[in-house]
Amino acid sequence: MSDTTGMSAEQMAERRAKALVGLLWHLGAYIIVNGFMWFLDWWTGEGIQWAFWISISWGIGLLFHVLAWFLDGRQFERRLTQHYLEKERQAKP
User: Fold this and answer.
1) Res 1: pLDDT
2) Model pTM?
3) Residue 75 falls in which region: left (phi positive, over 0), alpha (psi -120 to 50) or beta
4) DSSP state of 5
5) What is the Cα–Cα distance from 93 to 87, expressed in whole angstroms?
6) Of 12, 25, 42, 65, which has the highest C-beta tally within 10 A?
7) What mean pLDDT is reported for the chain?
């Protein structure tokens, strides 16, 4: 996550839209490639063995991508910084 201070609402919206498009491309690739892998696994007749592990491994990476998009969209870093600044202000006499 990068710093969003000093960005206009338009810039932040554009950044958010680009992040969503990247996430959707990642999801689309995951579905298409893994669907093909599962088909190949089924077609070879050896049961679902190796495609499962590919899907799980890639799915974990996709989950982190979704999590990063979700947290950045909520401006998590900005809110956390604000929280710590308020704590510092309250601690000072």
Assistant:
1) 45
2) 0.69
3) left
4) T
5) 12
6) 65
7) 84
Name the DSSP class of 61. Answer: H
Q: How far is CA 82 from the centre of its chain?
A: 23
Q: What whole-number distance in Å separates Cα of residue 70 and Cα of residue 19?
A: 10
Q: What is the pLDDT of residues 49-79, one digit of tens each?
A: 888 999 999 999 999 999 988 887 667 777 7
Q: What is the residue whose two structure tokens read 């947290």?
A: 71
Torsion of CA 9, 12, 17, 22, to 10 degrees: 180
| Residue spans of alpha helices (H) in the chain | 9-44, 50-73, 76-91
- Check residue 3 and give its pLDDT: 52
Q: How many residues does the chain have?
A: 93
Q: How far is CA 81 from the centre of its chain?
A: 21
Q: Specify whether the CB–CB gap between 81 and 52 falls below 8 A.
A: no
